[in-house]
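Retro notes
What went well: the complex prediction finally ran end to end.
Inputs used:
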Amino acid sequence: MRSEAEINRVVDEYADMVKRVCFYHLKNKTDTEDVFQNVFLKYMTYEGSFADREHEKAWLLRVAINASKDYLKSFFRRNVVSFEVLHEVEAEEAEEHREVLEAVLSLPVKYKDTIYLHYYEGYSAAEIGRILGKKENTVYSLLFRGREMLKEKLGGDGIDE
Amino acid sequence: MMALTNKIYDAFDHIQADARLKEGTKQFLRERNRGKSRQGYHQVMKYAVSAVCGLLLLVMGGVGTSWILRPVSYVSIDVNPSIELALNRFDRVVSAEAYNAEGEEILDGLPLKWKKYTEAIDTVIGSEGMRLYLTDTSQLVLTVVADSANEAKLTEGVKACTSHVEGSCHSTQADINEAPQAHENGISCGKYKAYLELSQYDSSITLEECRRMSMEEIWERLREYEEGGEDDAIDGTGISEESVGDGTETGEETDCGYGYGNEERRGYGYGNGSSHHGGGHHGGMHE
């Protein structure tokens, strides 16, 4: 069992990251918060140790992705689908952010994961491959296809690589 | 113009965990953590309670078992075979002991344990092996060894069991306090009582001799002494005092069969007036 100080540090440090992962999968606040707490609960009860902070972060990412996918697969979630997609995003948020986010969130899960991990977290294809358990080349393909889909969704206007 | 990379980054960057979510999660984890601790405490308490209950059950089981298994009374069945049934407080047989080889042969394979004592007596007396010893001249002596609360009841049962026995049959009682001495000496309570009686007439008689003697032999000798004592008493030899003194137990022994002899023994035979051996203390009946 991890100490309270350690748990608080991890919550402070990775709360945003975990929330993003949960949110782009679940697309609503309630489910996001449920899974969010469960991710840290898993961390609290995890008996293993981490080689370093990078290892710890990668572990949390993998757990958050898997927990979100599991939640989506759950019977309850499948039968009580929330349509409040994106409405959780703050109203005052810039229209442009909302549009991009909406485009990202509309992608199939496998693209969303690679897009997020690459464009936001800055992981390389090889690192993403290790986190997601995919081949590096597969990750490249997913990144390429995902970016193409985003361009298409965003109309290509003003999109610059 | 904004690069897609930046746009994606910015879009994600706007998703943040607010303080409420962070604090709520920390609180949730703290509670779960405490719950775990409490769960650990409850687990320990649960095991402790289980252990105590288990121990209690064991103790109660042990006490109960010992309570049920402990013999509180005995019924000796002596002919030549010498057998003793140990009864618990429910008058059930908790063990059956043979005090000589003949007794062992009879007990061998007889299902007596947990039987009601009356059934057990019936089983022993009715057994093939025992029938060989129940002759016209044999003495079947059943001795009830119990405290005053159970003695009469057990004696009643014993009499009922032996009412149909052909041949000489007697029921008698012995002091429960003498049982340990009898058992220490490897002899049934019934025979031990007979030995004590005989030793009053003949101080040279040993337990070993009595152990080897059949009840028929012991009783025959007792009868001789008593009849002799009576003759002496009649003759004024003074021996009668000892004999008659022993007669304090007169009436303890009752005939429960149809055979001979009993009426001549102790309280029944006095006054018949016939002496076989002229009052000698060592009648020499036992070879």
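What we learned: The longest helix of chain A spans residues 4-26.
What to try next: split runs per interface for comparison.
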